[in-house]
Amino acid sequence: MKYGARYKAVVAAALFGLLLLSGCASKGEQTIEIRLGEVARTVFYAPQYVALSQGMFAQEGLDVQLATIPGGDKAMTALLSNQADIALIGAETSIYVYQQGAEDPVINFAQLTQTDGTFLFARQAQDRFDWEKLKQQSFLGQRKGGMPQMSLEFTLRKHGIDPHKDLKLIQNIDFANVASAFGSGTGEYVQLFEPQASIFEKEGRGRVVASIGVESGELPYTVYMAKQSYLKQNSEAAQKFTNAIYRAQQWIASHSPEQIAEAITPYFKDTELAVLTSSIKRYKEQSTYATNPIIEEKEWKNLQDIMASAGELKSPVALDKLVNPSFAKQAISSNSIGNTKTDVKKSTTEATDTAVDAGGSP
């Protein structure tokens, strides 16, 4: 789409979003503000940006204030210190807090993604990738105990590679700076989220050779969570939030990568539409986006298997200790647009394709 047409579409969407908000206000409903912290700005979280840009939060009477807090540890700190009401982080962080004996545990209530969102990126082009090629190579890794690093190590061990003996592993770079460090010449291999992987491919810095998401299987990789006390005191807000996320997930499932890219472009103003589209296509092809917010038992078990493999799990934690499925189940029941991750029906929200939630701030 040409810049002028794209600009007009965004403006029209914003105006329509304001109409939606005024419509909610006219009913006399009080808007509920939610401070949402995301661990990164990535196409991996496309359903969240759809919920914002297509007015799904606004339709629920929510004013969602979005902030990017790079790194799972920092995002969790913001949640625990009440700087955020809800956080989008890897579910493993809730287990870490629980293992420390928290009096007010962090509860997972809505899943957004169901696989790892990173891709193995090689600096040198390869006609045919073989995992053995990683041995003795410098690998720009992620933070110890973080889900990207644990999923990587789980995958490497599956292919007979000891990540701490067979690789020249570099782990002294903050999460937010890993991509730029690789771009500056550090490491021969790295894990990258989208759209960074597609951007680097376009720039000729290397190419994607494998998907860690495909290799490590389904798990609650990024989940909306809040302190138990918040969910008890703000159950209506949590339910409305989950309703919007579920509708966004179904919207994602029933729309093309091109349509999704158009919808989320306000949150990626410096990224070309073609790059957004190719990034979303990669994620959709490997079923990365969950089609409903329920965290399943098998996914929870796989998460803990990966943590145990990395030496980060003191003891198994039962699903019902840290997962509250009631909000997800109610969202599915009240929306009546599919009730399993394999039963994807057409979203009923297509009429709001161009709406923008003025409460969200890219």
UniProtKB/TrEMBL annotation:
Compartments it resides in: Periplasm
Stated family: Belongs to the bacterial solute-binding protein SsuA/TauA family.
Chief location bin: periplasm
Region Disordered: start-end pairs: 338-362
Top-rank taxon, per record: Bacteria
Keyword flag Repressor: no
Signal peptide as annotated in the record: 1-27
Keywords: Signal
Pfam families (UniProt xref): NMT1_2 (PF13379)
Protein name (Swiss-Prot/TrEMBL): ABC transporter substrate-binding protein
